[in-house]
Each structure stands twice: as structure tokens, then as C-alpha cells.
Design brief:
The complex is a heterodimer of chains A (752) and B (208). Chain A is built from 20 helices and 24 strands. Chain A is α/β, with parallel strands linked by helices and 752 residues long. Chain A has four domains: 124 residues, Rossmann fold (3-Layer(aba) Sandwich), CATH 3.40.50.2300; 148 residues, 3-Layer(aba) Sandwich (Rossmann fold); 95 residues, 2-Layer Sandwich (Beta-Lactamase), CATH 3.30.450; 246 residues, 2-Layer Sandwich (Heat Shock Protein 90). In chain A, the strands form six sheets. Chain A has a five-stranded parallel β-sheet, sandwiched between helices. Chain A has a five-stranded antiparallel β-sheet with strand order 14-13-17-16-15, sandwiched between helices. A five-stranded mixed β-sheet of chain A has the order 19-21-22-24-23. The longest helix of chain A is centred in the C-terminal third of the chain and has 55 residues. Chain B is an alpha/beta fold. Chain B has two domains: 126 residues, Response regulator (Rossmann fold); 59 residues, Arc Repressor Mutant, subunit A (Orthogonal Bundle). In chain B, strand 4, helix 4 and strand 5 form a beta-alpha-beta unit. The chains are: A alpha/beta (752), B alpha/beta (208).
């Protein structure tokens, strides 16, 4: 699919370049027209005076032709001086004086050999205000209307009279649009425009009766455009010239042509070649470029020849050219065959049909050759790029292999390393030769050998990537923990290992530090609990003592009630155990134990904490409610650490209610199981609540709202819950106080 | 010691302690009533007998000190012995200020408890005796006529019969007769008795 498309694109490229080849052949012929050998005109200076501003299209066209003609005669651009007098917009005597002065200054010490004036205004300037400028230089006065009367002068002037053939243009237009009934004649109000309109009125008299003429000049341009945009069917527009409209606004005919063409309902014809491409269909046109070229040629002739009036032509004549814009012909659907013979057609778009034989032939040839070339190229490129990319890839892999911090190896299934990267040497201290000389299991820690063998047999049987870890003996005698990822390909094991000893050590240290911190904070909480603990121990002690004393009294009675004494002794034993329990629980909390991972009923864990701290709560006037799940709430974890969490939460709640009214000092502790395999515990109080803005900070170490607090309680609690695989959150209750809750994964015994 | 039965009330939320104290007090010869909360005790209709209250300070809801305030407010002035698992200075100060007999820290010896209880019972009896005497004297006072009360007031104020007679505009003989009736009605053997009674029922100050 894509190959096809590429070949198609190539074919087009070929055909285009082929066309260029054909056309390029013509250019050298043009180039030969240039003068060769000695150039007598090399030092001649030409001054061109444009009557108006620099960007008048007619002048641009004229000067293009003129300049090219002069250059072809050997007068370089640097010797052609173009001046735009801007006389249409400025005509005050002061201005004319200034311009005169400017030109004098500009060319004062330069010899000017020939002067062109464009439009009568420029000639008049030169003959009046500018008469002192280069008074003896011959002038070619271009674009003089037929009615122009030159002032009396001694100067050598070669005039060019504009003689537009309006009739011919109209005749051609009628041939192209034979049904035409109405002609809108559009002109400006500038003297030249007026003159042309008059010509039109005279010339078109011949058609009156057959055609209806509507002359549009006495209105501002906007109204003219409106009239044309509402042109009746079977009409044409005839644009003469338009330098200024009835409202006094200066225009250029090109600009007007563009606007007319945009709005017109009828084809626009004109008499100026600058309008071609600006929207007119064409006509018998005054070609500014052609006139410029002709003028240039004549000037060259005059300059070359001896400077005598008699030898020089008296007048420049330039005919009109039949020129048409192919796009406009298509736009108005005019018949191309009705054009006069020898017409110049611009903007022609060649259709492929015009070139069909060339194209078919070329395409067939090109197609065949392209296939051949493309397939050869592709084959070659594919081979060389495959080779290059293979080479590159292998180089890249070598680089990676050598710089990798991970241990990379290839081993055979007999258990020997085949290839090791340099990282091995730095990680274990052996040279690679030493490592390759033994079976790799010989380096593995005896406890890990079995696991390693199992991993390798899994690798062989399942053929997928296997992850495992083991310890490798380093040269220094210490074992390093390696984490492996390996795969079997063919008979070889490809494996990457990472030395995670430091990470494991850091994790262990972090865990140890965490445990120590938990321990310290536990002891700190114990400090807060001393009164409560005293209470919990004093209660049974009081009962024991009183019971014992009562027993003594009973026994010293005349008829001792032995039954009562037996009961007393039973109670004493029970109370003693109770006191012992308290002491045991306290010791457990204070003891530094290894973390255990035993199955626990969270309800019981909570109950034990509440038992320990009951006295404290009572003393603070806090009533405690435990709303337990009716079922076992089984989790796995460390009883002591979880009790520490609950203890922290209860103590926090108690502290938050220190200033609450007595009837509001309530703590509710809830446990529940949820369907998604987690259990939840929450401690709710009716205290001050938490600052919503700092709710995240509550879990930060050393963040505390209690004056005597360490700020470790919640932080440690969260760490403990997290290490148990749970999460903790704090929120304010809608009716005051806060609830701190945590989730823990439920253990499987839960279901029983 | 005395003929009327005295009662010791024990209020403690800890069943073990409650039971042990109950036994000890019974073994020492007291009749006891035990309550597991201050509210239960308030609901209890007290028999009209001398007694004292052994009261745990740390109890949920209404604690011992609050109960004592309630009792005072209700006019049920029982001598109170506070017991506590962890006595704090402010709590003990409050207890003594409100008239506690003693403030015992658990665990306490039976001697301490029994001494306090006996003191409390004695105080209770004393209170009851005083209350009874006052009631008798008020009853007797009510039997005096208006003139006899005036004579009573002036006599215990230290006036001679002659001065009283002058004050009241009558004869010394009449005053003598009034005075003899006052002595008899009030049950006084001597002027000294009469003066003491007057103090107890507030004659002297209230009338004068």
C-alpha cells in the first residue's frame, strides 16, 4: 500500500522535472539577445520621473519593461535612477520647488544622459518648475493623451501618445459574450479618466441602438460597485481608468478592477494590462510593460547613435496587445475559441489532458524504471540498515553491559557462569575468572541453596521470567543479599541481580528505630497512666486486704461461718490474680519485645486497654462505651503495638475533653467488620475536635496540641497501623468532637 | 454501746471492693447496705437510724464528691468517709472542707476504716441527739404564752425579777409566777438550764 503511494509520488516528481527540462531549453535563446562585446552605454545615466507615487501599478509594469530593456542594452541598474514625484497628492508651488531642489541636489554632480517622464504631469513639471534641471538632456515623454498640448520649448522631446483602442476591446468582448445587451462603462474623474470616458462615449456611438450603455463615473466608488453588483443578466462591465472617484478619493485602476471583479455579476473588460490578474477578462490592452520595453529600446537606439535630432525618431509608437486572463475566461464560462488570433493568455492552467501523450509515455517509462530503482534501493538500504542497526544495537548492549550497576550474567544449565559484567567484581570482590571457575551455587548461602535450585528448576520448566533472592558469599567472607530476575533462552540462563544488602539493612535499621521509638512513646504513655495503674492495682489490693481482715474476724467469732471464710478466700485469690494481670499488662506494654504476628480478636485487644485505663477515665469523669461487633474481629498483628495505638487514641480523646462539660465527657469505641476483608475500629469523643486546617499535620512527628504532649502519639500510631497493612484517619464529628479510626486487613480466621 | 442499731452504707462501683468492705464491716458488728453507684444510693429510702457513709471517690457518672454535695443539698447530713484508689491533694481538701470524717487511701487497714466508721456513727448519733433535743425544746417553747415568752427572754437576758416587772409594768410577784411557769414548761431545773435552752432554740437573739 505505502510502496504504491511512494511510487506514485515519484512518478509525479519525474514528470515535473521532465517538464522543466523541456521549458528550460528555451531560456538560453532569450539570454542570447544580450549585447556582447564592447559596451558603449556602460557609463550612461538614465533618469526616470514618475508623475505619481511609487506604487502605481502602471508605473511598476512600465519600469519593469523599461529597466529590463535598458539593462539588456548594457545600462546597469545602478545607472537607472527612478524618481517618484508624487504630484497627484502634492501640487503646491512650495512642494514643486522643494522637489526641484531635491533632484538638483541629488543629481547635481552627475551627468544624466536621458530622461523619461511618465504621464503628462511629470513632463509638465520638467518643463516648468524643473526646467533648470538638466536642460539639455533629451526627454521621452510617455503616456501623453492625444489631446495633450505641450508648452513651447526648445528641448528635445520624444512623445508617446496613448491611443487606446476602446472599440476593439468592446468588439472582442461582444464576441466573447454575444448576448450582451447592456454595457456598464466605469471611469474615474481624474483628467486622464475623463479623457478616456469621453473617448468611450464617442467610440461606442456606433453600437448605440443595439446596446444600452450606462456610464458610471459621476458617483463615489461604493455606489458604482453597488450598481455593478446588481448588473442585469447579459451585460458586461467596461473599465476605462480610475485614478480618482467622484468623492475626490484617489484610487488606482488596479484596486478598482479588483473590487469590481469581486462584486460584479457580469464579466469586466478593460484596456490596461495592469488589470490583467486583477479581475478583468482582458481586451485590447495598453501594455505598460510593453510600452516600457519599447521606450527602453528606442532610448538605447538614440543613445547609441549620434545625438542629432534628425536621426532620431520623432515619436514612440506602441500598439495595444490582445491579452486575456485564462481564469476569468473560465470564471465567466466564455468561449476560448472566440478570442482573436495571436492573443496573449495569462494564468493558463495546463490540464493534464493537454500533455497527455507526453505524460503517458513518460509515466510508462518512469514507472518501469522506478520499480527497478526503488526495489534495488530498498533492498540495499534494508540490508545495510539492518547491518548497521545490528552493529549499533550490539555496541549499545555492550556499553550497557559494562556500565550496569546491576549484576548481569549468562549461565549454562550445568550451573557455570558463561559471561559476567564488571559489576560482579565490585559487588563480590572476586575476579570474573574466580567466579567462572566454580559452580554458582557454590557461592550461595547454604540456607538459600534449596531455594535457588527451586528457582532454576521453575525457570527450566515454565520458561518465563522468574524472580527470587538469595545470599552470595563475597570474597571478604560476608554474604550479600541479591535479588534476581532471570529467564531461560535455549540452554542459557540470562539473569540480572541486584545487591540489596544495603537496602535490607537500612530497612531493618529503620524498623528497629521505629520499634524503639514506639517503645519510648509507650513508656511515655505509661507515665501518663500512673494514676490509672495505681487505681487498677489498688482496687484488688483493697479488696484482698479487707477480705483477709474480715476473715480473721469471722474466724475469731464463737461460731465461725466457715462457708463465708471459704468464699472470702476464693475472692482473695481472684483479686490477687486480677492485680497480677494488671502488672503483667503493664510489663508487656513496657517490655521491648520482638514484633509478633499472632491472630488477635480486636475486640479483646481493645477491652484490655480499656481495663487498664478505666481508672484514669473515671477520674477525669469520662464515661466509656464499647460498641463491639457481635462477631469475632480477627486480625493478625502485634498485640502490644495495637494496644499502644488504642491507648494513644483514648488518651488523646480524654485530653480533648478536659474542658468539656461533665455530661459530655464520653468516649465511644467501636469495632466492626466490613465485607471487603477489612476490620475497622474507631474512637469517638465529644471534645474540642481537631483543627481542620491541620488535619494532615496531626500525623507528623512532634506535632502536638497538648501542652505536655510529646507529639509522637498519632505519628507512632499511624506507623504501627501502616506496618500492619492498615490505614488511619481523623475526622470531626458533625455534632462536636473527633473520631479517629483505623482499618486493618481481616485475617482468614475471621470467617470461623 | 447504745441500744439503737447503726447502719454503714458502702458506695463503690468495684464489686470486689464493695463485697470485701461489706464483709469486714459486718464482721465488726455493723449493719451494712451496699450500693454500686451514687445514683443508686440517692434513690434509696434511708431508714431513720444513725449511720455513716463509706464512699468511693472515683465512680463513673456521679462521683463521691458530687454525691456528698447532693446529700448536703437534700439535708441528708450523713457523716462521710471517703475512700480512694489514688488520693489527690485537691480531692482530699475538698472532701474535708465539706465535712468528711476521713479520707482513706486504698488499700487501707481495717483499724483506719473501723476507727473512722465508729467516729462517724458517734457523730451521727450526736447529730441525732442534738436534733432531737432541739425538736423537744421547740415543742416546749410553743406551749408558752406571749407574756411567758417575754419573761423568758428578759430573764435569760440576765434581768432581775424586779427589773423585769418594771419593764413589763407589772408587779414582781406576777413575774415570779410567770417565771416559775416558764421553768416548769421548759423543763429547766435551774436558771443555767434555762439559759442553755434559750441558746439552743435561739430565744434571746431572735426575740430580742
Amino acid at each position: 500500500m505505502s510502496t504504491e503511494r511512494r511510487i506514485g509520488a515519484m512518478a509525479v516528481c519525474y514528470s515535473v522535472s521532465l517538464l522543466m527540462l523541456f521549458t528550460a531549453g528555451f531560456f538560453p535563446a532569450l539570454g542570447c539577445a544580450q549585447d556582447q562585446g564592447q559596451n558603449p552605454l556602460e557609463d550612461k545615466n538614465i533618469l526616470i520621473l514618475n508623475a505619481f507615487e511609487s506604487n502605481v501599478p502602471a508605473f511598476e509594469k512600465n519600469n519593469e519593461g523599461l529597466s529590463a530593456a535598458l539593462q539588456s542594452g548594457g545600462i546597469a541598474i545602478r545607472n537607472q535612477f527612478f524618481e517618484n514625484l508624487d504630484l497627484r497628492r502634492n501640487s503646491s508651488p512650495e512642494y514643486l520647488k522643494l522637489v526641484t531642489e531635491l533632484i538638483r541636489q541629488r543629481y547635481g554632480n552627475r551627468e544624466i544622459d536621458f530622461i523619461f517622464t511618465l504621464y503628462p504631469e511629470a513632463l509638465l513639471f520638467l518643463l516648468n518648475e524643473g526646467r533648470t534641471i538638466f536642460p539639455h538632456v533629451p526627454i521621452m515623454a510617455l503616456y501623453l493623451p492625444k489631446t495633450f498640448k505641450a508648452p513651447k520649448t526648445e528641448r528635445h522631446i520624444i512623445p508617446h501618445i496613448v491611443m487606446p483602442d476602446l472599440k476593439r476591446t468592446l468588439a472582442i468582448a461582444l464576441k466573447l459574450a454575444p448576448k450582451t445587451k447592456r454595457v456598464y462603462v466605469v471611469s474615474g474623474t481624474y483628467p486622464m479618466d475623463k479623457w478616456l470616458e469621453d473617448r468611450a462615449r464617442q467610440d461606442f456611438k456606433a453600437w448605440e441602438g443595439r446596446l444600452e450603455f450606462q456610464y458610471l463615473s459621476e458617483q463615489p466608488l461604493e455606489e458604482i460597485l453597488a450598481a455593478v453588483s446588481g448588473a442585469v443578466p447579459d451585460s458586461i462591465v467596461f473599465l476605462t481608468a480610475f485614478g480618482q472617484d467622484a468623492a475626490g478619493k484617489y484610487r488606482t485602476t488596479v484596486e478598482v478592477a479588483k473590487q469590481l471583479s469581486r462584486v460584479s455579476k457580469a464579466p469586466v473588460f478593460g484596456i490596461l494590462d495592469v488589470l490583467l490578474g486583477a479581475g478583468i477578462v482582458g481586451g485590447s490592452l495598453i501594455s505598460f510593460e510593453y510600452i516600457g520595453t519599447e521606450a527602453g529600446k528606442m532610448a538605447l537606439k538614440i543613445l547609441r547613435g549620434p545625438q542629432q535630432k534628425e536621426n532620431t525618431p520623432a515619436i514612440l509608437e506602441a500598439r495595444q496587445l490582445d491579452m486575456f486572463d485564462w481564469r476569468q475566461i473560465k470564471r465567466w464560462n466564455l468561449s476560448e475559441s472566440a478570442l482573436p488570433g495571436g492573443s496573449i493568455i495569462v494564468n493558463r492552467e495546463f490540464s493534464l489532458w493537454d500533455l497527455k501523450y507526453y505524460i503517458i509515455g513518460a509515466l510508462a517509462f518512469i514507472l518501469a524504471q522506478s520499480f527497478l530503482i526503488v526495489s534495488l534501493l530498498t533492498q540495499k538500504r534494508r540490508r545495510s540498515s539492518a547491518e548497521a542497526s545490528l552493529r549499533r544495537k550490539s555496541e549499545e548492549l555492550d556499553q550497557f553491559f559494562n556500565v550496569s550497576l546491576d549484576l548481569l550474567c549468562i549461565a549454562n544449565t550445568e550451573g557455570y557462569f558463561q559471561l559476567l559484567n564488571p559489576a560482579w567484581e565490585s559487588a563480590l570482590g572476586y575476579t570474573r575468572e574466580e567466579l567462572m571457575s566454580k559452580r554458582f551455587v557454590d557461592f550461595v548461602h547454604p540456607d538459600d541453596v534449596e531455594r535457588t535450585r527451586r528457582a532454576i528448576s521453575t525457570l527450566k520448566s515454565q520458561g518465563k521470567v522468574v524472580h527470587f533472592d538469595n545470599r552470595y558469599l563475597g570474597k571478604d567472607g560476608a554474604y550479600r543479599w541479591l535479588e534476581w530476575s532471570s529467564v531461560l533462552a535455549g540452554d542459557l540462563i540470562y539473569a540480572a541481580a541486584r545487591d540489596v544488602t544495603n537496602r535490607l539493612r537500612a530497612e531493618a535499621e529503620a524498623g528497629q528505630r521505629r520499634d524503639e521509638l514506639a517503645h519510648v512513646t509507650r513508656i511515655a504513655s505509661m507515665g501518663e497512666l500512673t494514676t490509672s495503674l495505681a487505681h487498677e492495682i489498688n482496687q484488688p489490693l483493697t479488696a484482698i486486704l479487707s477480705n483477709a481482715e474480715a476473715a480473721q474476724r469471722f474466724l475469731s467469732m464463737a461460731a465461725p461461718d466457715i462457708g463465708e471464710v471459704r468464699q472470702i478466700l476464693e475472692d482473695i485469690i481472684r483479686d490477687d490474680k486480677r492485680a497480677g494481670d494488671v502488672v503483667r499488662k503493664v510489663r508487656a506494654l513496657v517490655r521491648k519485645d520482638k514484633l509478633s504476628h499472632e491472630p488477635l480478636d480486636l475486640r479483646q485487644v481493645i477491652q484490655e486497654v480499656v481495663d487498664l485505663i478505666r481508672g484514669e477515665l473515671i477520674q477525669q469523669g469520662i464515661s466509656t462505651t464499647i460498641e463491639s461487633s457481635p462477631h469475632m474481629v480477627m486480625i493478625r498483628g502485634d498485640r502490644i503495638q495495637l494496644q499502644q495505638v488504642i491507648l494513644n487514641l483514648i488518651l488523646n480523646s480524654a485530653a480533648a475533653m478536659r474542658n468539656s462539660p461533665p455530661n459530655q465527657r464520653r468516649i465511644t469505641i467501636k469495632t466492626s467488620t466490613s465485607g471487603n476483608g477489612s476490620v475497622k475500629a474507631s474512637v469517638t469523643d465529644f471534645g474540642t475536635g481537631v483543627d481542620e486546617n491541620n488535619i494532615e499535620r496531626l500525623f507528623e512527628p512532634f506535632y502536638t496540641t497538648k501542652p505536655e504532649g510529646l507529639g509522637m502519639g498519632l505519628s507512632i500510631s499511624q506507623t504501627i497501623i501502616n506496618t500492619h497493612g492498615g490505614s488511619m484517619e481523623v475526622s470531626n464529628n458533625p455534632y462536636g468532637g473527633a473520631t479517629v479510626s483505623f482499618n486493618l486487613p481481616s485475617s482468614r480466621e475471621d470467617q470461623s | 454501746m447504745t441500744e439503737d442499731k447503726s447502719l454503714v452504707y458502702v458506695v463503690d462501683d468495684d464489686p470486689s471492693v464493695r463485697k470485701a468492705l461489706d464483709r469486714l464491716l459486718r464482721a465488726a458488728g455493723y449493719e451494712t447496705r451496699t450500693f454500686e453507684s451514687a445514683l443508686d444510693f440517692l434513690d434509696f429510702a434511708h431508714p431513720d437510724a444513725p449511720g455513716c457513709l463509706v464512699l468511693d471517690i472515683e465512680m463513673p457518672r456521679l462521683n463521691g464528691l458530687e454525691l456528698q454535695s447532693c446529700l448536703v443539698a437534700r439535708g441528708l447530713a450523713l457523716p462521710v468517709i471517703f475512700i480512694t484508689g489514688h488520693g489527690t491533694v485537691p480531692a482530699s481538701v475538698r472532701a474535708f472542707k465539706s465535712g468528711a470524717i476521713d479520707f482513706l487511701e486504698k488499700p487501707f487497714d481495717e483499724k483506719e476504716l473501723l476507727a473512722a466508721v465508729s467516729l462517724g456513727i458517734e457523730q451521727s448519733r450526736q447529730q441525732r441527739r442534738e436534733r432531737d433535743e432541739k425538736q423537744t425544746l421547740h415543742a416546749r417553747l410553743d406551749t408558752l404564752t406571749k407574756r411567758e415568752r417575754e419573761v423568758f427572754r428578759l430573764v435569760v437576758g440576765g434581768m432581775l425579777n424586779k427589773q423585769v416587772a418594771f419593764d413589763l409594768g407589772t408587779t414582781e410577784k406576777t413575774i415570779k409566777a410567770h417565771r416559775a411557769r416558764v421553768m416548769r414548761k421548759m423543763g429547766a431545773q435551774s436558771l443555767a438550764d434555762l439559759v442553755r435552752y434559750a441558746e439552743k432554740v435561739g430565744v434571746g437573739s431572735s426575740i430580742g
